[in-house]
Amino acid sequence: MILLFLVFCPIIAAVAILLGTPARGTALGSAGLMLLAALLVFFGFQSGDTGFAFVTSLPISAEWRLNFTLGLDGLSLIMVLLTSIVTLAAVWFTGEVSKQERAFYACLLFIAAGAIGAFASLDLFFFYAFHELALIPTFLLIGIWGSGDRHAAAWKITIYLATGSFILLLGLLMLYRSVPEAARSFDLRALQTAASAGQIAPDAQQQIYLLLLIGFGILISLFPFHTWAPQAYASAPAPAAMLHAGVLKKFGLYGLLRIAVPMLPEGSRHWAWLLIVLLLGNIIYVGLATIAQKRLDWMLGYSSVMHMGYIFLGIASANLLGTTGAAILMFAHGLSIALLFAISGQVRDRTGTLRLDELGGLGRIMPLASFAFGLGAFASIGLPGFANFAAEVMVFFGAFRNGADLAGVHIYQVTTLLALWGVVISAVYMLRAYRATFMGTRPDGLATAVDISPGLRLPIALLVGALLWIGFFPQALVQVLTPTFAPTFSETK
Amino acid sequence: MIGAPMLEIAVVALGLLVLLIEAFTERTDKRAVAWIGMSGLAAVLVASFFLAPSPPPTTNGFWSFYTADSLAVFFKRFALVTTILVLIMMIDYAPIVRQTVHGATKQAGLGEFFALPLFTCAGLMWMASATDFVMIFVSLEVVTMSFYALVAFTRRNPVTLEAGVKYLILSALSTGFLVYGITWIFGATGETNLARIGDVLRDGGEQVPALFGMALVLVALGFKIAAVPFQIWVPDVYQGAPTPVTAYLSVGSKAAGFVVLLRVLEPFFVLPQTERLLVWVAALTLIYGNLAALPQTNLKRLLAYSSIAHAGYLLVGVVCLAGPAVGYYFVAYLLMTILSFAVLIVVASQSGDRIEDFNGLSRRSPFLSFAMLVAMGSLAGLPFTAGFLGKFFIFDAAIRQHQTMLLVIGVITVACGFYYYFKVIRAMYWERGSSDSTVPVSALTRYTIVALIAAILMLGVYPQPILNALRPQTAALSATR
Asked: What is the pTM of this model?
């Protein structure tokens, strides 16, 4: 029941806003309620339980064995928590909306509803459908309220995501069809049972995995399908970028961890080399491209693409340590990138530019923004104490532990060594951007800029607090994730 | 209990009654005629739920060329609902008809405008039941004849006149192909009855001449459903015809064409060449419809190309012989197409039917622009709309039959679809309009639009009612395969 509330609360709030209730108040209220409910769910979750908690189910079609089923295990639990934290922060960070304020808040809430619905659905159909709920709101948010070349960016993200989704749909339908008639179902639990029993033929696994990898890959901005992401995030209004980069993009990773890798082990083994090559593209190639960026928003967009590489590495390692690290990194990255986009949006509102060569010395006049951005940047680089550090360590150790060799080369270990350079790369671009924005001499045009309003300390504290909490106590997430991953991923590999 | 043939008789009688009323009442508002037609059709629709079960097909006599199986009854109801919705749109369109028809009195021509769809509807219902080539031919002609008049109805408008002539000539040509094809099939098999043709072909009758005849029949049906390469007439006729008639053409006429196609192809699917041919027709239709829609700037024309594109998805369903998937897709197609045409009529009466006339509609009328948003999202295939489930079932059928090429083309064309349908959304929400005047919507249209939106969203989540209505056909089709 509480999950039904979590999914429908933002939808109802959005409709109410469109019908005329005060926009900001309703949105903040519903986002606050969502966070409250998510915290209740998180702390009420039975961590010793291997199955799913809070399951509710409504039958839709007996013929297709299609049900509207909501439920949470460890993985979806932390994603729901992430979504509600970022939603509240995004709504809070929404400043004055220049036009059609109601529609803006409604779009934000629809994206949040889509994300929560996708993470909480235990049914392939609704898992897919909820994610697509965000497509039109994203198109409108970027197209109406975006900045820069917003129309091109909105078209690009829409077409990319729509294409990726339909490739994904083919993969999911093939998965549904590949299970023998008796066990066929859209229920993720039933599919997992059938897959664990070896009922999916190996060659079917290989085909389906490839489709899922490309479909999810486009949604996650896997190299070389990543070009939509920096442009869209640079043009999107800050709250939209926070929600999309922080939460919605995690849908694809969630899908890989939930469906592709555990249900299609043969497929994931077969295509491991491909994923490894592409994820190195994310880390090294996109990392270098990030360094070359001349605008803060583009830099952040590229950096979020680059960090996907680490998460892919954790997923590719396919052992308990690596996948747990990947899941925690999803959580950590969602929070840190949301914080960074929020502050950069504030900087754009106050200075009118995000070109790094036109910025400088803002630390003196915007101490709060500078402090918050600094924390976000440190978290993003992976400094100890932040959740990202704990997660990246687990990913690297997990991947290094995978001793699979391809033609005599221990590819995972080589990949890990190469990927470690990504940490250096991200330190370079983050610190350079920080210096160019907040330190040095201030150009004359920026004299009038004022610091972000003190009321925004709360959402900043929320995001940073969550990052530090997991940074110091990663066990809080590990202990809910372990029962989820233990049955499908081995400890060593 | 009512016999199925009574439904068509009732509709024809209703049409005649409406004509008589229109002839003897000169003064009264002719929209009353439309109301009589709508309520009559609604009564027939209700009656269709109390049908006596269809007797098994006999070797000769009435039930050898007429069937009332679930597919037939489903499409009869489909034709009735479509016609009712078209009549509602026609009421909104009446002022434009009045401007463009010569006549002694002010309301000249309106009565016929409301009466002709009733005869078309009877023809569509017969087509749904026809299982014999003679019956197919006659009912097809009933539909086409009434469309000749309807397409060219606002004849003072040169564009409409052009559309009427184009439709007349090409349609007559395709009829020629149909008759010629039937002749070849009859010559090769000695039968006009579809079931018996199938028996003859299975027993190794003369296959090449029958196949040639089938190809000719396919030409005629390809014209009706706007499949490539018989689609050239579609954009011009759709753009020129009165908008409600365009909606009727793109939904009613196409649906009837597809039922006949499903029925005609069943006996021929014993021949492997049929499937290969159809796969190519489907692939080309998908590619042509979607690519040609990309650069369109006129919404009516865009919808014409989109109707070709949807014919492509439907053909994928036909290739896979997935009767229920095709049926479901049609329901979705009916709802979203009628919805977009209904909004188009209202907006076009204010400004025009180009896409840029929709600029800033979200401020002038949030209601209409939301309706259009739902229609376009559904046409593009966004989840939680009926259009998505339609594509979902079609893709599923294609996966089941391992039609890899069609799947690849399908995914690419869906992506194209997102572009051109979202162009309309862009116009409504991104752009600023030239005027800020609100758009008036009549109460009847408003209720109709609300009902259509509700139906699209409901069927997008809960498809079971439609699937149930189509279920017995599932068994029949899987038995023939």
From this structure: 0.90
